[in-house]
Design a protein that fits this description.
This protein is mainly α. It has 2 domains: 166 residues, Farnesyl Diphosphate Synthase (Orthogonal Bundle); 201 residues, Farnesyl Diphosphate Synthase (Orthogonal Bundle). The chain is 69% helix and 1% strand. It has a two-stranded antiparallel sheet with strand order 1-2. Strand 1 and strand 2 form a beta hairpin. Helix 5 packs parallel to helix 7, helix 5 runs antiparallel to helix 8 and helix 7 runs antiparallel to helix 8. It is globular. The N and C termini lie far apart (51 Å).
């Protein structure tokens, strides 16, 4: 059998599996335990998707978020008896926290998914593009709920050029519940839009796994904050950021497109993951560097890594690889004991500069790029353009 025939047979099999799942969904018996109440909007077929204008990627992507917010509010009202005042609060909470930012993670689901599908000769309809955008927003919402919680744990002040959500007078500690609400809404969205697809178990699995991986990274980060500076090693830093950042910020976006495209080869996922983990670790090193050196106007928030005594790329390498005894003692006396935007913070920033951390970072950046390029030939089914596009969005970024 030729490769074309094999591909056609695989497509036919996937379409048959899809039709089977859709038939089950139409019978309304696929989830009998939660088929209640009858007024729950998600029990009805969702409306036709809006037209996704690929010539206006950001605008079209935001339109899908608006659609999802309305769906969630309708679900809370029709299926969970949520009063109008609480609905207004949830609307504001979602608008405030899930929108904004560069949206690279979400938009890359759309861009990478289209490239992967087209490389396999699959038709990319408007409905497929919207489904990719929905998955993209699920990643953006995953990030949002973690940031809401993370900002509270870090006592952060600003996020995306506005006060952190928990600092609003009408929010405060309610932000803890809000972060959980955003997280659980992700799975309402996935069920509403993908439960009739044969790959639905794979999609829910990747989000559950990615969430857990990120929580492992958060555990390493928050518990590690109690450890002495001597334990803030470059190796520990890499372990933290691998789990806290790389999986949800990079791998999940491409894996979603691979799942929709029907890729099942474990080795291909392994190859793609390896490249994207390197990218994600490098991205976090950038973030750590910018937290110290970028202005709040450029960064969109006030950097707090020095004040929070973070196990950052800068500190781990400076303390363990460059600092002499006097400089180590200075770090012991002052790192994590100054206020953001204070003279004490500026003195530590100047110490990093004196120790050559800017030059060290530039070398690390080039080394990371070179390492990624050496892995180019390891991917077989995913077009290199997918990974190159991701790299292009972050390489030598300034904010």
């Amino acid at each position: 059998m030729s490769e074309v025939s094999e591909l056609q047979a695989k497509v036919a099999q996937l379409e048959a599996e899809r039709d089977e799942w859709r038939n089950k969904a139409e019978s309304k018996t696929i989830f009998p335990a939660t088929h209640w109440p009858s007024t729950k909007p998600s029990l009805e077929a969702h409306a036709a998707y809006p037209e996704y204008d690929r010539s206006k990627p950001k605008e079209s992507f935001v339109t899908i978020c608006d659609m999802l917010i309305e769906e969630c509010l309708n679900e809370l009202k029709g299926g969970y008896e949520c009063p109008d005042k609480e609905l207004q609060y949830v609307r504001k909470m979602l608008e405030y926290n899930v929108k904004g930012g560069k949206m690279n993670r979400g938009i890359m689901v759309v861009e990478s998914g289209i490239m992967i599908l087209e490389s396999k000769g699959r038709e990319v309809t408007n409905d497929v593009i919207v489904q990719l955008a929905i998955l993209g927003w699920c990643i953006e919402w995953l990030q949002a709920w973690m940031l809401v919680a993370d900002d509270m744990m870090d006592s952060s002040q600003t996020r995306r050029d506005q006060p952190c959500w928990y600092l609003l007078p009408e929010v405060k500690t309610t932000a803890i519940n809000d972060s959980h609400m955003i997280n659980t809404l992700i799975y309402k969205v996935l069920k509403n839009h993908f439960s009739d697809e044969s790959y639905y178990p794979q999609i829910t699995d990747i989000f559950q796994e990615t969430t857990f991986q990120t929580e492992v990274g958060q555990l390493l980060d928050t518990i590690g904050a109690n450890y002495p500076n001597e334990e803030f090693t470059p190796e520990r830093w890499e372990q933290i950021v691998k789990y806290k950042t790389a999986f949800y910020s990079f791998y999940c976006s491409v894996a979603c497109g691979m799942i929709i495209a029907g890729i099942t080869d474990v080795e291909e996922y392994d190859a793609v993951r390896k490249i994207l983990i390197v990218m994600g670790v490098y991205f976090q090193a950038q973030d750590d560097f910018l937290d110290v050196y970028a202005t709040p106007e450029v960064l969109g928030k006030i950097g707090t890594d020095i004040a929070d005594r973070k196990c950052s790329w800068l500190f781990a390498h400076a303390f363990h690889e460059i600092a002499d005894d006097e400089q180590k003692q200075y770090f012991q006396n002052h790192y994590g004991k100054v206020q953001p935007q204070s003279d004490g913070e500026e003195e530590i920033r100047q110490l990093f500069t004196k120790m050559g951390m800017k030059e060290k970072y530039e070398k690390y950046e080039q080394d990371s790029y070179d390492k990624i390029m050496t892995l180019k030939d390891t991917v077989k089914e995913v077009p290199w353009g997918v990974l190159e596009a991701f790299l292009g969005k972050i390489y030598k970024r300034s904010k």
